[in-house]
Structures are given as structure tokens and as C-alpha cells.
Predict the 3D structure of the following.
Amino acid sequence: MMAAFKRMEELDLAGKRLLIREDLNVPMQDGRISSDLRIRAALPTLRSALAQGAGTIVMSHLGRPVEGRFDPNFSLSPVAERLSQLLGRAVPLLPDIAGAAGVTAPIALLENTRFLEGEKSGDEGLAKRLAALADVFVMDAFAAAHRAHASVCGVALHAPVACAGPLLAGELDALARALEAPTRPLVAVVGGAKVSSKLKVLESLSVLVDRIIVGGGIANTFAAARGLPVGASLHEPELMGAAERIADKTDIPQPVDWMVGKRAAADARALLRPVQEVEEDDLILDIGPETGRRYRALLADAGTILWNGPLGMFEFDQFGEGTRLLAEGVAASSAFSIVGGGDTLAAIDKYGVAQGVSYKSTGGGAFLEYVEGKTLPGVAALNARVEG
């Protein structure tokens, strides 16, 4: 997966018009930004553009509005306000492409790209209208790179110059280091509700890594495939055969204890069970403490760690100890570690171990598709410009 694309740091941007695609799709609650992690991740790219004297228009999507229709609930207005605070300068919000054409501010933010008709279909006419805003298009949104959208791929094909921003390039460099030339043992940690949602990732990893630690509902399916009782827990009986095939290809450690509850709720009582003693009405909601200690020991010996998905319902503290132990184990390990996915980033933030992680990937779906071995359209478009 060697990258052929140009990088932003290779270009002289003084006096140029830049159009930068970022991922500012931040979580919102009651009209307020609940986490500005993705905005902060984009700051080095934006500050670099400003420092070089480039006139910059930033664009991003937010949420899933009806395409082509303005919806104030999905406006980037709160993002523009937060960007202004973080950059220490006004970042005006441009309502549409026509308004962007004559902008004179050093930096401005274009309103939600999904308000533009043809964005998700990759409409060529829209892509050309966006490309006309810039001398240089900078694709810096790894989290959107798996989408063949006009603001991701189309602009890259039609802008005078197209390059990768530092955030996108850094993500790809880190993933290449972990997957293409890893220091071994390479340990993957894959959590989540369903095997079906990460089956292809697990199958791809099974022939690449030395060990896979599974958690969440995924672990329940693997436990059931081993003949262990899972009670009323979320699992997928139809994928037990797939779990067995994956386990035949790589080492998947078996848990020895679980934390269970009768309900998945903030006030549910957590009960410790040996794996053989799960009751019929038990819900497995976390790994147990002994399993957590064993997993942490495995991470201590790892050379490379790739983690996507928590091990339990860590949003409830009584079912978060497994994820906490794992997060602390990743941070304490001398391994090169990549953590990806919104829930996983939230977990390392909750347990205060972010500084101990080598690389934090802001991508969710793109992270998983890259691990699966898929070509990301946003990266392919940049490579196509260089390859002619």
C-alpha cells in the first residue's frame, strides 16, 4: 500500500488559495459540541497553512442531513465558533460555494458539504465547482477517505494541484508501520457488539497478526463457539463457524472470568462469574479482572498493538474495568500502538492514558477498511493525480 501522493509539506503554499477537506464531524449534544477531538486534530494542518500565508477554505460534513437541503441542526456554525477560539482568530462560516468564491479572510469554513446536492454521489459538476475555489486541494480527512464523495475524491481529480495533508499522511504512515512492517509480536485488540460488523477485519487480521484479543459481543460469539455458556448475552450463533475458522489461524486467548449483569443499565449490579458458570439470564458485559490481568500481560510483551473497540460497556463504570486494564496495558507497553475508533478514543480519554498511545486514529470506518486491505477512494484519487 505504498503511497504515491504529494504531501502538503512538499509544496510552496505562499499566496496560494487552499481548499482543505478536514473531518470536523464532531459529536453534538443539545446543539453543543460534546468532544472537539477532531477539531483539535486538524489544527496543525490549518496553522501550517496560515503560517505560510495561504488563503484557506476548510470544508467538512457533519452528521447525516438530507442531502441538498439546509438543516440548522446540522450546521457547522458551532464548529466555526470553536475553530475561532482555538486558532485565536475569526473563522467565518460561508453559507455556500457562491459565497466562498469571493472570500478574503485568511481562513474560513464552508457550510456542511452534505447540504450540497451531489456530494454523496460524487457528482462531477459539484466537484469542479469546489475545485475552482482553490489552487491547491489538501485532502486531510482520513476518517472520510473511504467515501467516494465529491468533496473527497472529485475535488482531488479536478483541482490544479492535489496533495495529502499532515493528518491524512500521518494516519497512513502509522497504519503502514503497524501492518506492513510491524515489530513483532503484533497483537490486535478487536471489540464491538457483533462479529458480523467486523468479520472481514478479523479474517484479514488472522493471517497478519500473532494474536487477536476479542472483546464485547464479539467475544461472546467466540466463547459460544468454544462451547462456553453465554446466557442471554448478545452473540451471533450463525457466525460461530466463522469464529472457529478465525481461531484456527491465529492465537485468540480465552477469557477465564466475566463481569455479568441481569440488565445492561447504569444501575445494574455487576457480578463476577467464572466463564463456565454463566447463568441463563446473565448478560456478559465485560471481561473479569483475572482475564484483564492476563490480557495486560500479553500486551507488555507486544512489539506492535492495533486496537479498535472496547472490551465491555465501559460507559457504565461497573462494566469498564476490563477496558481500563487494557487501556492501561496499551499505554504501559513499549510497543508501537495505534488506537482507532470513536469509542476506543473515548475510552483512553476516560482512563487518562492517551499520552501513552503512540498514534490515535480519528478514523472509524476508514480505519477498519484500511485494515481489511481495501483501497480508500480518497487516497486512490490522490495517487491517481501523481500517476497520471
Remarks:
- Residues 49 and 100 are 17 Å apart (CA to CA).
